[in-house]
Amino acid sequence: MYRIIGADQKQYGPVSADEMRQWIAEGRVNAQTLIQAEGQTDWRPLSTFPEFATAPQPIPSGTPLMSAPSSNAQSMVNGPGIAMLIVGIIYALVAILGVLGNLLGWGINTFNWGPKGAGDLPPEVARMMQSMGGAVGVIIAIVQLALSGFVILGSVKLRKLESYGVVMVATIISMLPCFTPSCCCVIGLPLGIWTLVVLSKPEVKSAFH
Fold it and tell me: pTM for this structure?
């Protein structure tokens, strides 16, 4: 296994020898790229490693490492990025309805919860929903709208492979059951888990900038 110092002075890896040869073939490393083999403490140029002397398509000195995000990592984050964007938009729409509902005085009987309206809800749930109306409901909905915007921002950053920390926070927010008192959280939880799994992959982490 090997670690690499890229042109941006960041460390990448560990990667196997086969992956290293692939990077050489793709032009992502060059003869002067600093390499550290497993068990070593010093960094040496790639050209000093005999195991890569016969690597395919040797490339000239000066070609930078990771000049563009890994296409493999990009393809891995596209799906979760689109899913997070959809979740953020759904949450935003729910929050906007919450703001309008509280400003216009919509009560819980406004929506068809069942044959008897809110009467079909458990008393505890009905009381909770009543207490969340009015000014309190507007504030809660505005906070939800702000969080929705952050989730949408995280989806954009994810697809651009930017701001790993922002994407992680946005993913966690999208999974919170308290984010929205609706069935939308059922959507956000599995999609958030999917995104976290993708974000934990080394090749995805190393592609972020």
Answer: 0.54
